Amino acid sequence: MFIESLNVKAVLIISLLIIFVGGLIITKKTEKQEQKKILLSPKPASSISPSFQATPYPSINQPNQENYLLQYAEGECDTNSQCVYIEYGCGGGHGRCTTTPDKYKDMMTTCDYNPDFPAFLGYNCQCISSLGQCGWVK
Known about the structure:
The chain crosses the membrane at residues 6-27. The protein has one helix at 2-40; strands at residues 68-69, 84-87, 95-98, 124-128, 133-137.
């Protein structure tokens, strides 16, 4: 009877160990599947820790937007000679970087000063060849 009770206890302990170890294995698989889901699911850049963000480098084929402005500019171009800065009005800061300067020949404006005009901020009217349009380049 003592041996039978030992056998029952041993079987019970072994069964509990198997259930426990099996539960751990299933939990590990589930955790790995969750990790895969997390790694494969797209995350917004704001949710990524700054220490893990890749440093953005400017591409050779993409213009750097900090070096050009498209406000007060218009027209498609292939070369710088196609883009002309036409100043019109009075006060300063009225004009366009354009391929069609004749369009603004008789333009009238208010006589005020626009301090944010690109020509006053160190920009020059040029053809932004990567975009194929006139703009203001620093």
